[in-house]
Every structure is written in C-alpha cells, then in structure tokens.
Amino acid sequence: MIDRPASHPPAGAPPVPAGRFATAVNKDVPVAAPGEFGALQLGEGQVRGVVPVWPPVVLAPMAGVTNLAFRSMCREYGAGLYVSEMITARGYLMGNRLTTLLASSSPDESPRSVQVYGADPVDLGEMVKSLVDEGVDHLDINMGCPVPKVTRAGGGSAIPVKPRLLARLVRAMVQNAGDVPVTVKMRKGIHDGLLTFEEAGRAAAGEGASAVGLHARTAAELYSGEADWTAIRRLVEILDVPVLGNGDIWEPYDAIRMMRETGCAGVIVGRGCLGRPWLFRELAQAFEGVEPDRPPRFGEIVEIMLEHGRRLVELFGEGVGVRQMRKWTAWYTKGFHGSAAVRGQLMRIDSLEDLERAVAALDMEEPFPVAALRAQRAKGSKTQSVKLPEGYLEDLEDDTPPKGPRTLEEIRSWEKALNGG
Questions:
Q1: Residues 3 and 230: beta-carbon distance below 8 Å
Q2: Is there a single domain that holds both residue 189 and residue 64?
Q3: Which domain holds residue 359?
Q4: Are residues 266 and 180 in the same domain?
Q5: 119 domain residue, yes or no
C-alpha cells in the first residue's frame, strides 16, 4: 500500500450522509466545502487570457477511447476539459485520414483540446501552427506512453529521461502555439530506480508549459498497483505551474482526496470513466459541494450505451462504429449479474440491434454494483521491463530527436500501439 497522508477537509465541509454509495476508502470523505477549490487556470498571463476549467477535472487522452463520440458524452455529463486521443504529428501533417478524423471536433466542443505525439521539433511546430489556425484551445504532448514499440525507439515515456530533449520539444510547441496553452503529460519515470518526473517537470515549466500532468506510476508499472500520489505532491512543491494529478480516480471522492492530499490544481480521469461517462456528473457534483447522485441502474446504462453506439456510428460509419462499440459493451456491463454469459454475444455484434438483443435477458432494474466502482477496466495488473534504445542511458544530455514513424504504414502501426500514458 502507498503511504498516503490523512486528508483534512476544511471547516464548513458538508457532512457525510449515512448510507453513501462508495467503497470503504471513501465512506467518510466530505465533498468540497464552499470555496475550497477553484477553477484550473491554463495559460495564465497570456494575451488571449486563460482557459478556465471547471470543475478541475480532465478526461485523459486515451487511444481508441477519447474520440469525439465519447468526448461529447463526457462533456455533457460535466467534464471540465476533454482531451482528444493522441494524434501523431507526422500522420497529421501527411493528411492520414484516420489521424485527421481523430483530431476532428464539432462546433459545440469548447474548449477544444488535442493531445499530440511527436519527437521531431520541426514536425511538432508545423502541426501546432496548423491546429492553432483551426481554433484549438489547448494542446497537450504525450511523454508518458509506455508501449515497447515507442520506448524502444526513444519516444513516449523515454523522452523525459533526457530533459534537454524534452525541453526542445516543449519549446517547439510553445513557440508555435501563440497564446494557446501547452501542457505536458508524463509518468514518474522508467522504473523506481530511474525516476525522472522532477527534472522533467522543471524542464517543461522552464520552456513555458502551462501545466504538467503526472500519471503517478512508472513506465514499468504500466497500470498496476496503486498510483503514488506522494509524487504528485512533490511535483506541486517544486513547480510554479499547475500540476494535474492522474492515477486511481475511480470515485468522485477520490478526486477530492487527491486534491486535498497533494495540492494539485486538477485531476485527470482515465480508466475509471470507461463505460461510466456519468462519473463526470458525480465529480462535478462533488466539487460543487453536492453529494453525488447514485449511478444509473442497468436499464438506464443500456440507453447510455446505445447512445454511445449511435455516436460512434455517426463518426466512423456503421461497420467501424459497431466494431468499436464491442469493447465498450464489456466496460458498460462489468459487474452486473449475468453479463459474463452474454459477453461472447456482445463481442460479436454487427449492429446496435444485436446489442439490444444480447442484453435483453439481463435485469434492467439491477442497481450499479458497488464492487464495480474500482474494478479494473481495459488495462490489467501486469508490469514490464521497459525497452530503451541501445546505449540510450549513456548520454542523458543528448537532445537528438529519436527516430519516429515516417511513412503512412509506420504511422498507422504507431497509432495503433500508442496510448495516453
């Protein structure tokens, strides 16, 4: 277990109601007191003015997840900022159809936020200029991806090992972003013996990053164990820019605890919202000082799931949209009685009608199970030995950009492998 300090809510925090729907760790955590938390301010001091984010809750960029369909649902439920899944600079500049689609938005999506991946300062600069011209309001760069294909080439979570390289990439983005705030998302380091977040955080802030997001795990840990919130607190202590905490936000009260214990300016929500977009409503209520609503019953979740499917079909077309929906059905139905028996059917659906038929036998009145609140979603509990280029650790002052994907075939391969870190 991670050694976490006690959370001390301020005077005036609302009393905790009896019978709260929460796991044991959150049974006694008060929601926000009046004025306890303020809006996250991105880009403070820039000519255009800040991008205020309220509630201070960010939908994490996740590959295959945070496309426009899911972002729109999270926005409607109350997320303060909703970041696109990561797009590669080369793919975007070369006009790759899927890259362009993943970067797309809608007129009512505001603020518009895009996460980019690139290891070449020239590519990043050109991409940023173009995205700013399109009206993007916020840009984030992925420096936390732990996928072997990426780290083996010196990209993703390998970049913060070399702070001068990180600084060079952030500088290229900031110089071409005008008054659009640029943020960085990274991990603690490669493994517990090679922690990089302090020096990397200072380098990013020194080059003008408006905030630093920290997934409080190492690349070796992937998504296993408990996130080390003490690392978030340490980054808050040493940086003059806002720090966003990422890791183990499963319930709305987790976000309140994280901000109280670390002093971070906002939270990033990843796996906890998979198949649970209403989590953002609960988070918004907790930050407003209101006891969150109970999660929907299964019948309501079926309607949410079908609406999600309709939005995926509208975005990708029926064939691709329904295939994308297959993985979501496992997340939406996780923990409900009888769901395991129909999961095989759900993984083979060819239409939304197939989805409706597959779940019809389940109990539509079943309440959301408490046990599913902190159930693992998408990523398992495995760890890894991080792959780095041969000789990569011999010169940490080297700022030579690593080799990234250049051809459309390489770009498609990388985009399939990459994730939000």
A1: yes
A2: yes
A3: 298-367
A4: yes
A5: yes
Same domain, 102 and 240: yes
The total number of structural domains that make up the chain: 2
Same domain? 51 vs 115: yes
Measured CA to CA, the distance from residue 275 to residue 161 in angstroms comes to 34
d(CA 111, CA 39): 14
Instruction: Say if residue 79 is in the same domain as residue 140.
Output: yes
Backbone angles phi, psi at 87, to 5 degrees: -125, 140
Both 238 and 306 in one domain: the answer is no
Q: Which among 74, 145, 264, 273 is annotated as catalytic?
A: 145
- Kindly report whether the peptide bond that precedes residue 5 is cis, defined as omega within 30 degrees of 0: no
In a domain, 305, yes or no: yes
Same domain assignment for residues 161 and 278: yes
Nearest-angstrom CA–CA distance, 249 and 7: 15
Is residue 273 among the annotated active site residues?
Answer: no
| Residue-level pLDDT, tens digit, the chain, 421 residues | 344 445 677 778 889 999 999 999 999 999 999 999 999 999 875 545 588 999 999 999 998 899 999 999 999 999 999 999 888 888 888 877 777 777 788 889 999 999 998 888 999 999 999 999 999 999 999 999 998 888 988 889 999 999 999 999 999 999 999 999 999 999 999 999 999 999 999 999 999 999 999 999 999 999 999 999 999 999 999 999 999 999 999 999 999 999 999 999 999 999 999 999 999 999 999 999 999 999 999 999 999 999 999 999 999 999 999 999 999 999 999 999 999 999 999 999 999 999 999 999 999 999 999 999 999 886 667 999 999 999 999 999 999 988 776 777 777 776 666 655 6
Q: Are residues 62 and 151 in the same domain?
A: yes
Nearest to 342 by CA among 323, 320, 358: 358
